[in-house]
Amino acid sequence: MKRLLAVALFLSLTAAASADSPPADPAPPAPTTSQTLDRLYARLAKTRLPEEAQGILTEIDHLRLQSGSDTADLLLSRAMKARAASQLDLSLQLFDSVVTLYPDWSEAWSARATARFQKGDLDGAVADLAQTLKREPRDIGALAGLGAILADSGQAEGALRAYDRALALAPAFEPLQEARARAQNKLWSLTP
User: Fold this and answer.
1) Extents of the domains making up the chain
2) pTM as predicted
3) CA end-to-end distance (rounded Å), the chain
């Protein structure tokens, strides 16, 4: 009986002590998408390894495709599938819906720019790329797309500026280095 009283006293004192002690620190909150993107862009700017740059860009693209809305994600997915199947009219209708419903989502503008480019609407593509970069100035695909359009239109200097902005974000990304070199060669061939 004395042993039971001792155990009961011990348990009651332990319970009282734990009630008085401050609660354990909760786990830190998971980083937001914005924080994760900031971290990835910082890594991308520092890496000198082309394979690592490609991997980081893949992670960034994956995050940018997630709007936070199942509806937006589904619409964008269907629009991209239609674009991949060369159903450009359908894809543009779907992209228009996404941009109208979710105007702050930079990826919707960027994806529609690609469809407009494929359709031959360069002015529309450039306008969408401008909207993309207004919302996400670090969008490397938008900068590269703008550079390509400018280079193809004979505006090598503008293309170099776009590629340089992209390379400041992803200096080890070889496709950007190659695109910039092509634009530089065009500029040299135009100079008397």
Assistant:
1) 51-121, 137-192
2) 0.82
3) 106
